Amino acid sequence: MSDSIRTLRVAELLRHEIAKIISTEIKDPRVHDVVITRVKVTKDLSIARVYFSSYNKKSLLDIQIGLDKSNSFIRKKLMGNVHLKKLPQLVFEKDDTPENASHLDELFKQIHTETDTEK
Asked: Among 20, 55, 100, 114, which is 20 to 30 Å from 31 by CA?
């Protein structure tokens, strides 16, 4: 079943607020290149999976460490900025969507090249 409107609204609100907190209030240099791509919230609003990416692909592990260390600080700031009865636990995960898309692109190119050579 698809996400409810409420979970989508909460997810977008969290994405916006987390991105703002990271860019303006976190001093950890490891997270300066981070981009919050999306947030997925469970139906019961207990867990929010925060997906991130960066233009600097080599620093994704450092970004993960920095975000994990800043998790409680981000939650504390969210409690003041977001008015929810229960604030979800934050789980930061690297967003693999761009890599998966480019891998699929390569596979489609290979298939296209193979079908052209068979003709």
From this structure: 100
Residue type for position 48: A
> Does position 69 have pLDDT exceeding 70, yes or no?
yes
Specify the amino acid at residue 72.
S
Residue carrying the six token digits 């967003």: 95
CB contact at 8 A, 32 and 54: no
pTM, full prediction = 0.78
Beta bridge partners of 38: 51
Strand partners, 53: 35
Q: Quick check: 77 and 21 in contact, CB under 8 A?
A: yes
Show the DSSP H helices in 1-119 as ranges.
Answer: 5-24, 60-81, 97-118
**108/54 Cα distance (integer angstroms):** 25
Decide which of 118 and 12 is more confident. Answer: 12
